[in-house]
Design a protein that fits this description.
The chain contains six helices and 17 strands. With 287 residues, it is α/β, with parallel strands linked by helices. Strand 13 and strand 14 form a beta hairpin.
């Protein structure tokens, strides 16, 4: 498992009863997690010192209960700064486990010793965009949500990347890729973090089981003659690492060589020492 174990401003303190107890900077949040199927003794004092608790509803969704939490705050990862705020469906605007991938591709970008163009699709609030830009890449950031792109710009500014070569695009990712192919544009690296289910700006429906393989096939056409890496993230339970390996191998390795590694991505749990699984990632890189 690839573990995001270099955080200082974030930790999973403990897990029990379908919930994870987290520290985001100096604030303690309790949020549901579908992977926490166990009940353990809640010995850590932080269980009783919550700043906010997200309660899941039996009907789906849920709501926040706030005790002492600002509307917005920030945390750091190495030389990056991310602005956080609780919003609908338990999220804070950052997936800390992705730091395992940020470290991986940041080293590839730095070691390439050449200009690298990165395309970040379903780019959310820009964690990967900021990491790639900080490593020296020129990044095209694409997300269907104008609000998420605005948030990503704020994260870039907070990370000292206001003048970095980042192109911000609000668009349906599939349609953007199709247009880039027609324009003849190419990228040295592609990152995608597709949702299990989503809708584009004009109601376009995305179901990952139906769309992911054709989309990988489509994105392959955007790779340059000397590509560096290709990263696919999955938070869908049914999309196992082996499935990611097969899809990426079929479309990328066949045409560009290199090799694929796929695995679960996880976060260390301080109290128990276990690694909490947080989805999977498939990584292709050139030899």
């Amino acid at each position: 498992m690839w573990t995001a174990d270099n955080w200082k401003d974030y930790e999973v303190i403990d897990t029990s009863g379908g919930e994870k107890l987290e520290r985001w900077g100096k604030y303690i949040l309790l949020r549901p997690d579908p992977q926490v199927l166990w009940n353990t003794e809640k010995r850590n004092r932080a269980w009783k010192k919550l700043n906010a608790h997200y309660h899941r509803s039996a009907k789906g969704g849920g709501n926040w209960e706030f005790f002492d939490l600002p509307e917005q705050w920030s945390i750091n990862y190495k030389d990056l700064t991310f602005n956080l705020k609780p919003f609908s469906f338990k999220h804070t605007g950052l997936f800390p486990e992705q730091a395992a991938n940020w470290d991986w591709f940041s080293k590839l970008i730095k070691d390439a010793n050449r200009p690298i163009k990165v395309l970040n699709l379903f780019a959310y609030t820009g964690g990967a965009t900021c990491a790639a830009a900080k490593a020296g890449a020129a990044v095209t950031h694409v997300d269907a949500s104008k609000g998420m792109v605005t948030w990503a710009k704020e994260n870039a500014a907070s990370s000292g990347l206001s003048d970095a070569p980042i192109r911000w695009i609000v668009d349906d990712c599939v349609k953007f890729v199709e247009r880039e192919i027609r324009r003849g544009n190419h990228y040295d690296a592609i990152i995608m973090d597709p949702p299990s289910y989503g809708r584009g700006p004009k109601g376009e429906i995305w179901k990952i089981e139906e769309k992911i393989h054709p989309f990988i096939t489509l994105c392959e056409q955007l790779l340059s003659d000397n590509p560096l890496f290709f990263l696919v993230n999955s938070y869908t339970t049914g999309l196992a690492p082996a499935v990611l390996t097969y899809m990426i191998s079929t479309e990328i390795v066949k045409k560009h060589g290199g090799f694929v590694a796929s695995d679960e991505v996880g976060l260390p749990v301080t109290e128990s020492g276990l690694i909490l699984p947080c989805g999977a990632a498939g990584r292709w890189q050139a030899k």
